[in-house]
Amino acid sequence: MSSMANFQPLYKQVYELLTARLVSGQWKASAPIPSEMALAKELGVSQGTVRKALNQMVAEQLLERQQGKGTFVAEHTQESSLFRFFRLREPHGESLIPRTQVLSSLRRAAKKNEREIFSLDSNEQVVELRRLRFLKDTPIICEKVIQPLSIFPDIDKEPQLPNSLYTLYQEKYGISIVSVNDELRAHTLPSEFAELLELPVGAPVLAVERASKHIDGRVVELSYAYCNTERFVYSVQHK
Amino acid sequence: MSSMANFQPLYKQVYELLTARLVSGQWKASAPIPSEMALAKELGVSQGTVRKALNQMVAEQLLERQQGKGTFVAEHTQESSLFRFFRLREPHGESLIPRTQVLSSLRRAAKKNEREIFSLDSNEQVVELRRLRFLKDTPIICEKVIQPLSIFPDIDKEPQLPNSLYTLYQEKYGISIVSVNDELRAHTLPSEFAELLELPVGAPVLAVERASKHIDGRVVELSYAYCNTERFVYSVQHK
DNA sequence: CAGTGGTCTAGACCACCTT
DNA sequence: AGGTGGTCTAGACCACTGC
Lengths: 239, 239
Description:
Helix content of chain A: 25-40%
Oligomer: homodimer
CATH topology of the largest domain in chain A: Chorismate lyase
Order of helices and strands of chain A: HHHEEHEEHEEHEHEEE
Radius of gyration of chain A: 21 Å
CATH superfamily of the largest domain in chain A: Chorismate lyase-like
Largest sheet of chain A: 6 strands, antiparallel
Strand content of chain A: 25-35%
CATH class of the largest domain in chain A: Alpha Beta
Largest interface: A-B, 33 and 33 residues
CATH architecture of the largest domain in chain A: 3-Layer(aba) Sandwich
Strand order of the largest sheet of chain A: 4-5-6-9-8-7
Structural class of chain A: alpha+beta
Shape of chain A: globular
Number of domains of chain A: 2
């Protein structure tokens, strides 16, 4: 080799390759991926090296392994994905499953900041979706979701949106949300949302601005949510 | 062995043992801990098994490793520990170092919920500390910290509290905060804090209720903070 | 130079699942 | 029984650090 400047550990190269395969969608969520031995033989590395790459992917929750059965693409199914990033719960209590009602959906040109965040061309369109979420039949969150049409073609034509959008993203568009970045503020409730949340105008609400990232690192969804935190809290565990 | 019911992988036993050593404080933060080879020989296991235990501790940010130099107790020093759990920053920007001013400190009997959370006897005392934190010379957070005296003897006698309490906990009391659990709400600002935060009574503020845990899993500190989020946001990254 | 951690391999044995 | 992942070992070589 002419230079060591591009040196990458073998296990990392394997990790990159396998992650690319996962992203490309060539592994079905229902069947196990090839075994350690099969991958090692195919790639010409030792089983231990494949194992190290696979374990890193497990740590990032891209894969799940079961002794004796095999290694599987992590299923970000309804409930688990809802729980994974949805952080509202009863004080000191458990997570709850929210119910969701779609309020409206419209296409419009992307704004300047959206074009920057999503890396869009100047005339591209996005879908702006408004939803109301309920916990225990109480309206608790009013949210606005921004989706680029170039990433989610005709998503506004979907007949019925599931409770968890991330499931739809994965199944219909091959987009796996692996990390989200939330910025939280306290706001006074804007008048346009007061009736929906059954709160007086000016009541304090938690404003959550979220950017969601696909496996490849691109931001593919933005959302802005106003949460009533009278009876529920946003919970964070740092380790 | 008479039964396999208590089977634990070797590396996990090593992990437990080394974590216990770390907690006991017998490793100085300045000097490297024994090398992989030395630990492997002492414990009668292979170097690879020691490595697996050490790498797990690195993943939990209990240790830090540097190629060629050695393995060190993670320094939760001023800046790094402040950044680790302190989540207020400029929108879309970097973390900032807060300045801190102590307002008051008093001893009192533990309340019922505090006795439960800290596992205290019925007549034990706690210290209630009030502080004001500044970002860029703007008062931004008013907080109340609860510390059990049985865990932090005479902490209210400390002549000068550092900007980061966690540093003091580690150096003087052998308490390492390894995880915190925050519950966030939007509140209206109570009148007692309005003047301190230079905000009108009733302004929306972010209320953060935090429980901090020592390595052994015990909650050793509670804090209640009111944050002005007009110019700064509480940032969370989920992976 | 010797000592440290980082990577990579090969092989053994175990526990678990399916057939 | 045969295949899977999980653990453990031993040894080789590399990269970085400090003397």
